[in-house]
Structure formats: C-alpha cells, structure tokens
Amino acid sequence: MPLIVTRNLVKEYRMESYSVTALRGVSLEIAAGEFVAVMGPSGSGKTTFMNLLGCLDSPTGGEYFLAGEKVSELSGDALAALRNRRIGFVFQNFNLLPRTSAVENVELPLLYCNRPREERRQRALARLAEVGLADRAHHQPSQLSGGQQQRVAIARALVNDPVLILADEPTGALDTRTSCELMGLLQQLNRGGLTVVLVTHERDVAAFASCIISFRDGHIVDDQRNADPVDAREMLKVLDREAA
Amino acid sequence: MTLLASIRIALRALRVNKLRSSLTMLGIIIGVAAVITMIAIGSGAQARVEEQIQGLGTNLIVLHPGSVTSGGVRMGAGSRFTLAEEDAYAVQREIAEVQAAAPQLRGTGQVVAANNNWSTAFYGVTPEYFEVRNWVIAAGKGFEPADLTGSAKVALVGETVARNLFGDADPIGQVIRIRKVPFTVIGTLERKGQSLMGQDQDDVILMPISTARNRVLGGGQAKQRSVGTIFIKVRDGADMAAAESQMRSLLRQRHRLQAGQDDDFTLRNLSEVLAAREESSRIMALLLAAVASVSLLVGGIGIMNIMLVSVTERTREIGLRMAVGARARDILTQFLVEAVTLALIGGLLGILLGVGGSYAVGHFAEWRTELNAQAILLAVSFAAAVGVFFGFYPARKASRLLPIEALRYE
Predict the structure, then answer these.
(1) pLDDT for residue B70
(2) What is the spatial distance between Cα B79 and Cα B225, in angstroms, rounded to a whole number?
(3) Domain regions of chain A by residue span
(4) Are the Cβ atoms of B404 and A51 closer than 8 angstroms?
(5) 3-class DSSP state for residue B6?
(6) In what order do the strands lie in the sheet with A35-39?
(7) B266 CB contacts (<8 Å, ≥6 apart)?
(8) What share of chain A is helix, strand, coil (3-state, %, to 5)?
(9) Across the interface, do A77 and B328 touch by the CB < 8 Å criterion?
(10) What's residue B68's pLDDT?
(11) Residue B50 — pLDDT band, cuts 50, 70, 90?
C-alpha cells in the first residue's frame, strides 16, 4: 500500500452566511520514498491539502490513509500523536521558539512523547550534526542565519524518525544559493528513503522534485512524473561558477 | 509530557519575561503578605482579650452597692453601703447556679517594709475570692479558716508590690506594715498583668476580710458589715440570665425593697461585656482578613491578565507545539503550570514578607501579633487556588486554538 492514499477528499470552510469549498474531491496516491512538489496559485487549495496531509485539520468528506492508518476518523489527541510520530514539518518562516537554543528546539517533538532527558539531548544533537550544525547547537535562533535556522527546523522535523516530511514553502524566506543548499538537504534525505512533500509556487523549486502535482480551484489538474529532476549538487556547482 | 518538564518550561517562560513576571507576582506577594499580617494582628488582639477574660475569671457577675433615694433625692451609685458580707453568703447558699460568691473590702494606704515603702490598694477577701477571680498563689500558702475567724494579720502580695518592697528578695515570712498595722507575708500571687482598663492588677495586697474590717479600716463600715463589691462565679454551663434574676430577687427581698422601689445595688455581668468584646475583635480579625483577601484576588486578576496577554503573544508557539505533537491537554497543563508557578513563587515570597511584616507591626506599633501556621498555610493554598482559578481560563483558551490557525497567526 502506498504511504499516502486520499479518496475523494473534500474540505469545506463554513462561514456564518456562506461556505467556501477549498478542496473538491481530491484522490491521490503517493508511494513511500517519493519526492513530491505540490504547486498551484494561491486559492487553489494546495495549502488546505497540505494541512490535511499533515493531520493539522480534518477533512469534511472523503478518506485519508497515512501509512495504512485511516486518519480521517481520528480524534484530536490521536492526530497529535500521529503528527508527533509520523510527520516532520518544515515551515516557510521556520517557526523556531525564540530565546531557546537550537538543540532545545530540536528536542521539542521528543518532549511530547515522554522521552527521557538524556535520550532527547542525544538524539537532538545527532540530528543537528546531520544537518551540519553540530557547532551551533547552543546558539539561539536570533544568532543563526536564515539557512541555518531552516536547517535547525529540518533537524527538528527529523528528530522523531518520521515517515513523511511536509515542507510548506521552505525556501520562501531564503536567497537562491541557500535555497539550493536546502533543497540539496531535502534531496539527500529523500535518497535516504524518506518521503518528502513540498508545497511551492516556484517552478524552479518544484524542479528538484521527482513528481509534480498541480492544483487549481480545489482540483488536481496535473500530476506528472518529473523525468529529470534537478540535482541540487550540480546546481550548486553552476551557481559557484556563475559567482566566480 | 511529564509535570517536571511542564514546570521547567514554565520557569523558562517566566524567566524570559523577568520584569513582567515579577510585577505580576507582586500582586500575589502583597496579597499573601497582607493576609498573613492581618490575621496575625487579628489573632493577636483576640488572644489579648481572651487573656483578659481569663484574668477576670469566667462566668463572672459583679455586685456593687447601688443608689438610694432619700426624701426624693436620688444619690449616686455606691453612695450608701447597701451590700453586706452576708449578702454574699446568702447568694452562695441559696442560688443553685452560683459556684462561689466572694465579698471584697477595698482600702488603700502606705505599706512599709524595712526601708522601702509603697502606696497600694489592699483587699479584704475570703478564700472563695481566689477561685472567683482566678488568682493563683505563686508561692507560700493561702488563708486558713482560722485566719478569717481570728482576724489574723497575714497577707498575700502581688508581684508589683513584692518587687517594690523587697526587690529580688523572698517576701515570704517578711513583715510589712499596712497603715501602720504589722502583717506577715504568707504568700505571693501569680502575675496577672494589665486589666481591661489598663490597670496593673499585680499592684495589690490580699488579706482576710475580717482583718481588713477590724484591724485596718475600722470605723463605721465595721458596724454595718458592708462590703464594696461582691464577685459571683456562676457554675459552668448554668444559665447566666436565670442566675442574675434569682440574685436580683433574693437581694431585693433581703434588702426589704417594695415592688415600686429601685434596686439599691447594681448587678453587672462582666463576662457578657467581655464576650461582646471578644466577638467584636473576632469580627475585626475576620474583616481584616477579608480586606486582605481582596488584594489577593486583585493579584489573581493580574495573573489572569498577564496569562491572556501571554497566550496571545505566544499563539504561534502554541501552534508549533501542537504541530509537533502537543495535545490540547499538554498546552492546558503548560499554561496552568505557568500560572500556578507564578502564584506559588509569589505566595512563598509573600510568606516571607508577611512574617516580616507581622514582626514589624509587633515591634514598631507595639501591637500584639500572633503568627499561626494555619494562616500561612491558608494564604499559600489560597494563592495556589488563585493561580489555578485565574490561570484556567487563559490556559483553556490556549488549548482550544486550532493548530493551523495558531501557526498562521501574525
């Protein structure tokens, strides 16, 4: 069974006098180990779709299975546990806790599954080392650059060994080179077997993914395999040459 | 998430906003300190009144000679010697509710012992007097029946008298001259302190009533066997009002008063006066504590206010915590623990300030204050309760946020 299966997913927002249908029956399968980019203009429903995939919101209709588990019927607490164990989030604005060191930010998900203190610290330090920030573990977000902050956020997303990384415009606040480095990190994680779903409205960023899904007006309008994804390592070399 | 982890997070959050946290705490600190100090002052005053009641004797009725009317002219209270020693014996004998009745004859005069002299009051009394007025013999012995029948020249001295006449020396066995009559001191009285009116109750000499009448006071009073005051102790649990009315009719009968005539004595129930005083000091203490509690309440509202600001400020943080796996109850616990921690730290500091404040009031205002553990415990649990009560609403508000909306909050 694929990692993600959605069947006729519907999301309706009810206001006082009218209602808005953000998703109008989305059916989709994403296999484990894919690198998927979700694209679409604003209002297309891609963010709503991401929130549903991330178990941050419940659908109005349809079914959603994550790793074989039927998410669309779970309670709030069960969704929280699922987010904690299965999903790692990366946000456009990083969402790190201010005045809190990098390693403590990374530990955060482990706090909510009652890991002992030493284990939390150990695992958080290991993840920071993986994203190349071993020497910045005790810096606070304000002392880190944007790219470094986003890597702390990725370490936090990885710390509880999720099956899925959801990245919502992760390069939105970064310059081209830093974006490229970050995409390289996501590609590297994907090569390691992790499923990555990325929301973006930039074609250049989507080009790194192996599969591109386009949304418009709450429907999937295009779902195609990217035969030749850009390799971030090659791209970096190009950028270096240009700079020189 | 474990409670310990919640407490750690709460302490960190409070540390981040040091000034704000301390100002919020100040409300609780002042509230708790005020409650502790006010209760200390209130119970100090109460203890003082209780002590005075103990000193006076419990269930006490006092009889004084009253006014008499002579040819249409009403004389003032105590203008005639209308109470006789026998009235006391009759009251004790004939009224079942009365435990003891003690007649008292009062005189003042210069007392001399060796080189020292001292002006004081002396009382002629019967052995019942000690029981009725709660006098305890500190050293030596009391009066024997033979001392009364034989008008023996023996005396018991109060602490103030003993100190003024003998200094640190033992007064027992010494000879003192009261109005030039030599007496042997056979005992000393235990210290009683000040009376309700602020008089020194220990500035006193007690002697048998017959001695006072026959050998010291002499004169007209001796013939009439009149006394200045009769103290009556009513049995515990007996009906004071019934005892009073029986006493009144007995005395009217003994004094041969006609139906229309005024009493020629006054009868006062001092315990009642004191009980009223005790009640008023109790109400005072309660009032003080209530006023102080209001400041604690205001402190609680301060906590709620700051927690609400904090929840709004940290909406994004709450959203993030939810996204990485915090359940609604984890968020609730986090903010509740924060509020309670704030209140408890404030409460502990408030205890220090309150204890210090009570001592300061006792020292500088010279009011009696009594700290009690119960009040302290009460104040702190009240502070914690304030934390829970005023922290709950903001915490619940935080826990009810939707993760996606909280994450997108600007």
Answers:
(1) 63
(2) 16
(3) 4-93+162-243
(4) yes
(5) helix
(6) A87-90, A164-168, A195-199, A35-39, A211-216, A219-225
(7) B63, B64, B65, B66, B77
(8) 40, 25, 35
(9) yes
(10) 64
(11) confident
Structure tokens at B213: 């009448």
| Burial of A1 (C-beta count, 10 Å sphere; 0-12/13-18/19+) | exposed
With H, G, I as helix, E, B as strand and everything else as coil, classify residue B246. helix
Q: What is the pLDDT of residues B156-186, one digit of tens each?
A: 999 898 888 888 888 898 899 998 899 999 9
| Torsion sign (Cα): A206, A207, A209, A211 | positive
Place of tokens 């927690």: B307
B344 vs B261: which has the higher pLDDT: B344
Torsion, Cα A191 A194 A198 A204, to 10 degrees, reads 0
Q: Does domain A4-93+162-243 have CATH number 3.40.50.300?
A: yes
**C-alpha span between A210 and A223 (Å, rounded):** 11
Distance from CA of A123 to the nearest CA of B (A): 16
The tokens describing A192, both together, are 């390691």
Helical segments of chain A, H only? 46-53, 76-86, 102-111, 117-130, 146-158, 176-191, 203-206, 232-243
Quote the CA–CA distance of A36 and A14 in Å, as a whole number.
Answer: 30
Token digits for B307?
Answer: 């927690």
Is B326–A112 a contact, with Cβ atoms under 8 angstroms apart?
Answer: yes
| Whether B16 contacts chain A with CB within 8 A | yes
Q: Taking the CB of residue A65, how many other CB atoms lie within 10 A of it?
A: 17
Q: How far apart are CA A26 and CA B227, in angstroms?
A: 111
Cα separation, A82 vs A59, whole angstroms: 16
pTM: 0.73
Q: Quote the minimal CA–CA distance from B18 to chain A in Å.
A: 13
A 10 A CB-CB count for A233 gives: 12
